[in-house]
Records
---
Amino acid sequence: MSEHTDIVQVEHRDQVAIVTMNYPERRNAFSLKMRLALLEVFHQLLHEDTQSRAIVLTGAGEHFCAGGDLSEMTQVSPSLLDMRERISIGVRLFRMLFTGDKPIVAAVEGSCMGAGVSLAAACDLAIGSTAAKLSCAFVKVGLLPDTGVLWTLPQKVGAGKARELMLSGASFDGAEAGRIGLFNQVVAPGQALEAAIAQAARLAQLPPVTLALLKASLVQGGNSIEAAWRREVDLNPLTRQTQDHQEAVTAFLEKRKPTFSGN
């Protein structure tokens, strides 16, 4: 079953939803229209869709996302208030990806520049091609890094490396992205999407409630040791009460694979 819009496509493969940025003529640039479409699609998948338990984000054609649409930047500059609203759309999308209940896996091929890096870093996991070309290129066009990457990149690659990448805007390939931890898995060119779908399918087999609480804990419990302790004490009693926890224990004792219901 597929649902189509002109700039974002959503396909369901069993319990995995595949979100494809569909603007290949501009290497899936992060235009205003793309931001709004992704915001709408992810809201539906995270808050309304009951079929999917994991999500893959990818780009149509040979590229993931080439960053901001420079053709929009040549137009008459909007007012400061309008610009704040445009930037806030990217922030809302980042928050949705980073804090949403369902695990999200990025599948990166080809160009992954600027906001493309932001999107990949906002996903829980990223799988990329050795031939992918990445850059935190914001500084080269006189802009600050956006769409949450000021937070996510240091979390993924460490503060020192993130500072180097954002200050220099230097390009690096998929193999380097794997070495520094931006990519969780590096694959041959053309293999990122299928590898990401396979990873998402594995995540979709895990207890949905526990995954949602785990994602929230990684966001809210990682700022201090006290916050981490508090999340553990507050939330583990809840997971112990779920039917999925009981199913996991029973399946282990019965030496069979558990089937999780999300309850």
---
Amino acid sequence: MTLRHPGTLAGRLVTLEPLAMEHHDGLVAATEDGEMWRLTYTRIPSPDEMRDEIRRRLRLQDEGGMLAFTARRTDTGAIIGMTTFMNIDASVPRVEIGSTWNAESSHGTGTNPESKLLLLRHAFEVWECSAVEFRTDFFNRPSREAIERLGAKQDGILRAHTRLPAGYVRDTVVFSITRAEWPGVRVGLEARVLRHVEAASPDSGSPRLG
């Protein structure tokens, strides 16, 4: 069994499209939004590194180890980040959603939960995955809390697991969502996205949701 790239996954807040070199300038602008590459607990490409990072992800995609996406705001078309299916095991099947980053101004707008909804829906409902995994640095508490809000459960911690550009060897926290848990997770994610859609509508006076 081969898990093929699903192509474009379109949502109401965010659209995920296959990563391409033509996205370079938009991705540079997105990573400059908040200087995301300066975060020490994750790997986010700097403007100077972006071309090599796109090539790296496309090479891994050609080798079958990754399926890469560029994220855009659906309303404006502005590029806001990157995400992937990775650590693909088509024999189970099982995948990880990772290597994700988003421009600082997109945080709290609902684009990230909808991005996860689109990816999880494809993984569970098209590929019929048994589980979908998420990994993050033990010290990256915002990421850990965001993964837990998705409905994922912690599987464990891989201690002294991988070295980051900042120079330290991180402990990696592993979370997952199983196929049996997906229906409940989907309901929760759909409700979160709907709240953001309603808050962003012209008739709404509600503040932006977190």
---
Amino acid sequence: MDAVSSSQLKQTLLLLFAIHLLLPSIQATIVKYCDNKGNYDVKIHGVEISPDPVVPGNPATFNISASTAKSISGGKVDIYVSYFSVLVHKETHDLCEEISCPVKVGNFLLSHTQTLSGFTPPGSYTLKLIIKDENNDQLSCISFNFKIHLGNLVSDN
């Protein structure tokens, strides 16, 4: 290796290391299908949580990128949240309130924003999401983990 390419390599490595230290920790949310084979009409491509980690008392948005092989005219979304494997929250939403219906064949984004109580304990949680059509047939079922951290404990005054 000559001196120029060695120097460029060192600069590139130093830059990558600096970026790693300066950027907030970006971690991909690992999504698991309830059925290990993932044989669902709706395929989930990823989940983005903002902010990550979630802060109690502040809004948190869960963006779920997905695709469907068939048009969906209606349905519901069931959400189950567990803390240390204990179900702590359950809710159901009309699918057409979460996304514009009908959902056409192809890619779509399901976005849900919620503000957690300020008394929500910090820690690791598991969210299970089930999407059903208007006939109550299951279109997809996934689970993923997310973290809740306490907000800033120091007053800004």
---
Amino acid sequence: MKKFIILLLSIFLAMSLAACGNKTDSRDSSGKTEIKDAKELLTTVWNSYEEDEKFAIAGGDMTEENMTEDAPGTFGITDADELDRMLGFPAADAEKIDNAASIMHMMNANTFTCGAYHLKNADDVKSVAADLKENVMGRQWMCGFPDKLVVISLDDYLVSVFGNEELVNTFKDKLTQTYENAKVISEDGIV
């Protein structure tokens, strides 16, 4: 009987550890999630998608070295107006970030656009999140309207995603399931 209970407990422990295996949320001693850069953050989330959940994407900016197909890509931060035009990130806050990455729907950016931004100072997360939300919500849309905007914080990273509600919700769920520290700051319909 003892052997049976030990075996049962061993199986239970193994299953518990396996269930935790999908989390990539490793933290340093301060409790901060260890992420190399914004591109790694988006790549980790994108790789958590099942094949039937994925859709045609492009990543990065329009430069040859950063543009990617079917994967997230690095987005240059030197052109604040391009950050605003392509990702909805407020140009006035561009000096507060030191790297960025993006995922966009291959056919229509209003269907799905996601940007991840590493802030130089974690104290700026709330104010930049508010500016980002105001900037996206105040846009004049062409070629269709996105349904929803979600802004998420992850330590000193901000992630914004807007577009088709189902695609936005799936991304939000994948991000918050992948990273325990992820917190939804705002979730709004775009009218």
